[in-house]
Design a protein that fits this description.
Blueprint lengths: L15 E8 L7 H4 L14 E7 L24 H7 L2 E6 L5 E3 L7 E6 L22 H18 L5 E6 L11 E6 L6 E2 L5 E2 L6 E4 L18 E2 L3 H9 L2 E2 L14 E5 L4 E8 L10 E11 L7 E17 L7
């Protein structure tokens, strides 16, 4: 079954609404009407024209400006169940003290919540986990708005001449799908030397068609430029690098989409490799993959010691069309 997140996005996966201009026939536009655009949809002798120009720039896949002092969490009120899937940071607020902590499961006397972004990008262009298919993206919200406007005119039985256009992108192609997954709770994680668990169960993982994750900054994808755990952008970026390939039969490839991180607790570097199991593939409701974590014993990680190798199960959040591979 197709995800409801894709409801407005399948026909034009990489576009967003820039603006809509409304014009009427010359016989209908009078100086009085032209001064008040609320009259453009009023009944008249002529059917009004609605022309929509869609912006196809990549920033439409990001979030609009956020003014919430607690971070870019404005999309959460849309639907609690949806928010639980989309927001990577699960919070628990103590009902007595009001103290907020981040952990997978809340205790008695705590209120569950989600924080969708940190306050590090309050001025906009925050990364959206499902990109253009994410309810928090400019693209999704713009299409939802135009959908609502058109639906209201239909409900009021207001006739319209509709026109749509987009910027020229003759070479635009969707080469493959990607899927966002959450780690199934309660699994035994890999224990690092410092005692920290890996992977982080609060951060969703992308699976699907592989790309060279070193495009843009190399942070997290080169042995000598590891991502630092606990630094939001660097850590989350590890999980945005797609794994397993379109059909779930591709292991991680060194110097391509192998993951490297450093544990700030002791400065130790690690290498992470995803391996296919031969049974599941991206798009399945439950995806099982094999995760192999090595401790790096020298600077370029050519000498390694295995510290954990096991299967992990992931729950599907949604399919999406990936645009930004530098997030």
């Amino acid at each position: 079954m197709r995800s409801p997140l894709l409801k407005f996005t399948r026909a034009t996966a990489l576009a967003g609404l820039l603006f809509a201009t409304l014009t009427l026939g010359v016989t209908l536009v009078t100086p009085a009407v032209a001064q008040d655009d609320r009259d453009l949809f009023s009944a008249g002798s002529e059917t009004p024209y609605l022309f929509v120009l869609f912006d196809t720039s990549g920033s439409m896949n990001w979030k609009p400006p956020c003014t919430d002092p607690d971070g870019c969490s404005y999309e959460c009120p849309l639907d609690n169940a949806l928010c639980a899937k989309i927001c990577p940071r699960h919070t628990c607020t103590d009902d007595t003290t009001g103290v907020v902590t981040e952990k997978p499961v809340c205790s008695v006397g705590e209120t569950e919540g989600w924080l969708c972004e940190t306050g590090s990008c309050p001025n906009g262009d925050c990364y959206a986990p499902l990109q253009g298919d994410d309810p928090g993206s400019k693209f999704f919200q713009a299409k939802s708005a135009i959908y609502q406007v058109i639906q209201e005119t239909l409900d009021e039985k207001i006739p319209l001449h509709l026109g749509f256009a987009t910027f020229n992108q003759d070479d635009l192609r969707m080469r493959g799908s990607h899927w966002l997954y959450n780690l199934v709770p309660g699994q035994s994680l890999v224990k690092l030397d410092s005692g920290l668990d890996f992977p982080n169960p609060l951060i969703p993982q992308v699976f699907g068609r592989l790309w060279d994750c070193r495009e843009g900054p190399d942070t997290g994808f080169e042995s000598q430029e590891p991502a630092t755990l606990g630094q939001s952008w660097q850590e989350v970026r590890l999980y945005r690098c797609p794994q397993l390939g379109q059909d779930g039969n591709q292991d991680s490839i060194d110097d391509f989409n192998m993951l490297y991180f450093v544990d700030p607790a002791d400065g130790q570097n690690y290498r992470v490799e995803f391996e296919e199991t031969g049974t599941d593939k991206p798009g399945d409701e439950i995806l099982r993959t094999h995760l192999h974590v090595d401790r790096c014993d020298n600077d370029d990680c050519s000498d390694r010691t295995s510290i954990g190798s096991r299967n992990f199960n992931y729950n599907l959040i949604s399919e999406f069309a990936a645009w930004d591979f530098q997030g």
